[in-house]
Each structure stands twice: as structure tokens, then as C-alpha cells.
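Long-time lurker, first post. I've been practising inverse folding by hand and with some scripts of my own, and I keep getting stuck on stretches where the C-alpha cells seem ambiguous. Below is the full C-alpha cell string for one chain I'm working on. Before anyone asks, I'm not after the true native sequence, just a reasonable design that respects the backbone. If someone could post their per-position residues I'd love to compare against what I wrote down in my notebook.
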């Protein structure tokens, strides 16, 4: 199911955040006046530290203590700390995770929090099946293609070629042709030239982060999204997955075939590696990735980076998963009033303007997202390929369902097996049966 999301640009009026004082200790804090806050993105830490400092200035009795953890450590430690009763008062939440937190009653209802003028549809993502809101929107993201301009020029290709890519699961369209031509072996042979040695590749045409599990946000969903396939029967709160669909399996088979052809790294080589850094080291020519990575890709010294739209597929359009993060309050906090006030501030224009000016992500509030666009432009970065999905209505929603952790436990090893050549794409049918059994 596709849903059009439009930018809302009206500014949120300034909100007074003075508090009369709070009692009780913060969930993981040092004192009643400390609010603990966790996030996973190191690139966003400076912006949110400024927000925390500004919040403290407006509320001298309150201090926000921020902890930043890597993605994998973040979720394991958050889950364990909830079980141990010492989780952070406030934390950055994800659409794939919050349904499970609702099931275990770990989130505080936030219906009374003042909401900003967010991009259309963002606020609704965080309303549970009970009609209650459990997150305040902080940003949104889409997918595009980062590419090495020097490699493109050396291959005799142009920015116009990248801007007009097509794809299909039968022969890969012009997308596969470009990927093949940008792949170079240790002897300088390109992937589409006679004598190409796929066992000794110096530069891969397309980078690989991992198998994408069952969501494939930046890995493969921009391809499956152009075939008419959807993850679930409805979204949000679907109860039937479609991994047995021929359109999905054909797409994954094509994608995995790039590894066999030598155009994309083997899955085992990605363990412990960072795909963006591999691109920065000149080992891949194109990386499909999210808008939250713009700053990192454009920050590598000596590399001129281009950004192109995802390829147009069988539907006649291109596609991108649309995801939005939010901030949630842990149900076990002993400093609920202060925690909710911090969440309200995080969702206000006062904080989101700061985030936008740091040019890292697209904030949820339209006016702040415009500031981000201006800040990126000032750095010489054209982010239009990411915005086109929103303005053209080619987004589809990140799948929001129950049992996300269990689904990942089924789909990740299955997708890993397909990508590593240990199982055919047809094995996804059995995995689909296991996934749908969770909803019976």
C-alpha cells in the first residue's frame, strides 16, 4: 500500500517549557533533576546535545543526560535495561520496535503532548491499535543512490545516466548495466567486459550492507516497491506477510545474483564492515542508502559524491520506503512529568530547527526540514533525489506489525542463506509460513 506524504512547512509557535519542579528519580538518572535519554546515531548527537543544553537553560532544575550507543548494542541494552528496571526515561524509538514495546507495556501514553506541524502522516504512525499515541515524531527518511562521481566519469557515464535508471527483475534493466560497467577487477577489466575476473574484484558496482532481513529498508525494498508487492496485507497493523509472492522472490533472486556475477560483495565480507566506509575507501561505486547517511557519504575526503533517484521499475515509477523515528517515554520512569516535557521539547520547532541546521536528517516539522534543506544546499549537497519520493508520492510505509522481533528471527537467517547462496529464493515461502503462523 502506497501513501503520499507531503511536506508541511508551517512553523510551530514557540512553547514555554518552564516546569514547577519534579519529584522522584529518573529511571536511569542520577537524581530527580536528571532526565536520561538514549539515541543510536552518533551523527545526530551534537544537535541533540545542543537541544539538551537549551532545554536546561529554559528549565534550570532539569538536566538531560544523553547516552549514544551503536544500533545493535542500543536495542539489546535497551531491552535488557527495561527488564532490569533501569531503562532510560526517554529513548529514540523505531517503527519496527515499538509494537513489541506496546505488548510488554513499556511505553507511556503521550496523547496530551503538544504536537507540532509534522509532515503529513508522521504523527499517525505512532498511534497504537488502542488509539493511543506512544511516540512524538522527530524525523523522516527515504532512500536514494549515492555514487562516486570520479568512478562514473572514468567509466564514461554521466550524472544524467544515473538520474534515468530503469530496473526489472528479469535482466536488471539499465541499473544492472551501469552496476556491471562500474565493477572493476584487479586487472582493470570491467564487469561487462570479456575476461572479467569475478573472484578478484577491486571495485564493486553496488555496495552491500547486509541481507536486509524481512524489511530491506535500504537494501532491497526500493526495488520490490516498484513491482506492486507489499510486505503485508495492510499497513499499519497487518496480520499477513507476503514473502511467498513471486514478485518478491524474483526481486531477491535478481539481487542475490549480483553477488554470483561479481558485481556486489559476498555477504560474509560485510560482517563487521561498514558499507559507507567501504564506499569511502573506494571499494564500491554505488550504494543505496537512507537520507540519514547524507552527512557521512558527503564527508569523505577526496571523494566527490553524487546522489541519484532509485531506479524506475515495472510499475513505471521508482519507490522508497518511508520511515519516521519518534521519541518515547519508558513506562518505568520515576520522573514522568520531566520526561514528558523533554519529549515535548524534542518534538517542538525549537529543537527540530536546531537538528535541521546541523544538516544530518530531515526533521519531522516542515519548517525545520526546510532548514535542513538549506543547510545541505550551503554545503553544496543536492538532496532532491530524497525529496522527490515525498513530492511525487512514491513512498510506501515501513511495515508496522506485531511480532517484529520474532519475524526478524525468522527472516534474517533465511535472507542470509539466500544472499550467501546456501538456499534459493523459493525458500522464502517456508519462512513466510513460519512468519504468518505467529499471527494465528
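-- Answer (accepted) --
I ran through it position by position. Result:
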Amino acid at each position: 500500500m502506497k501513501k503520499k506524504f507531503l511536506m508541511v512547512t508551517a512553523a510551530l509557535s514557540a512553547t514555554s517549557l518552564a516546569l514547577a519542579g519534579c519529584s522522584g528519580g529518573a529511571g536511569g538518572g542520577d537524581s530527580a533533576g536528571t532526565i536520561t535519554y538514549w539515541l543510536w546515531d552518533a551523527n545526530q548527537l551534537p544537535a541533540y546535545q545542543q537541544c539538551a543544553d537549551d532545554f536546561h537553560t529554559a528549565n534550570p532544575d532539569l538536566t538531560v543526560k544523553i547516552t549514544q550507543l551503536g544500533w545493535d548494542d542500543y536495542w539489546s541494552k535497551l531491552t535488557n535495561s527495561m527488564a532490569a528496571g533501569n531503562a532510560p526515561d526517554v529513548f529514540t524509538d523505531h517503527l519496527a520496535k515499538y509494537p513489541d514495546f506496546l505488548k510488554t507495556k513499556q511505553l507511556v501514553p503521550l496523547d496530551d503532548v503538544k504536537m507540532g506541524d509534522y509532515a503529513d502522516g508522521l504523527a499517525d504512525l505512532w498511534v497504537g491499535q488502542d488509539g493511543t499515541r506512544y511516540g512524538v515524531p522527530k524525523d523522516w527518511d527515504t532512500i536514494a543512490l549515492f555514487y562516486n562521481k570520479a568512478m562514473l566519469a572514468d567509466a564514461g557515464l554521466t550524472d544524467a545516466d544515473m538520474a534515468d535508471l530503469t530496473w526489472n527483475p528479469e535482466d536488471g534493466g539499465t541499473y544492472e548495466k551501469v552496476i556491471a560497467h562500474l565493477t572493476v577487477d584487479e586487472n582493470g577489466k570491467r564487469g561487462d567486459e570479456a575476461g572479467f575476473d569475478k573472484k578478484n574484484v577491486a571495485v564493486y558496482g553496488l555496495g552491500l550492507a547486509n541481507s536486509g532481513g524481512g524489511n530491506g529498508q535500504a537494501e532491497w525494498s526500493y526495488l520490490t516497491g516498484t513491482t506492486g508487492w507489499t510486505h503485508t496485507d495492510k499497513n499499519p497493523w497487518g496480520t499477513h506477510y507476503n514473502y511467498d509472492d513471486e514478485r518478491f522472490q524474483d526481486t531477491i533472486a535478481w539481487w542475490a545474483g549480483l553477488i554470483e556475477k561479481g558485481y556486489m560483495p559476498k555477504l560474509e565480507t560485510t560482517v563487521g564492515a561498514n558499507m559507507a566506509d567501504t564506499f569511502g575507501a573506494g571499494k564500491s561505486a554505488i550504494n543505496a542508502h537512507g537520507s540519514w547517511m547524507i552527512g557521512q557519504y558527503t564527508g569523505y575526503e577526496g571523494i566527490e559524491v553524487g546522489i541519484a533517484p532509485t531506479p524506475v521499475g515495472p510499475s513505471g515509477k521508482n519507490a522508497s520506503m518511508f520511515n519516521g523515528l519518534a521519541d518515547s517515554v519508558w513506562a518505568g520512569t520515576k520522573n514522568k512529568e520531566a520526561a514528558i516535557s523533554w519529549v515535548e521539547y524534542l518534538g517542538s520547532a525549537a529543537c527540530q530547527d536546531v537538528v535541521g541546521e546541523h544538516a544530518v536528517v530531515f526533521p519531522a516539522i516542515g519548517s525545520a526540514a526546510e532548514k535542513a534543506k538549506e543547510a545541505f544546499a550551503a554545503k553544496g549537497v543536492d538532496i532532491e533525489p530524497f525529496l522527490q519520493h515525498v513530492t511525487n508520492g512514491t513512498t510506501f510505509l515501513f511495515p508496522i506489525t506485531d511480532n517484529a522481533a520474532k519475524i526478524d528471527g525468522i527472516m534474517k537467517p533465511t535472507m542470509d542463506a539466500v544472499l550467501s547462496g546456501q538456499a534459493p529464493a523459493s525458500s522464502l515461502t517456508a519462512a513466510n509460513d513460519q512468519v504468518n503462523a505467529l499471527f494465528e
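A couple of notes from the structure itself: The radius of gyration is 22 Å. The longest strand covers residues 320-329. Happy to go over any region you disagree with.
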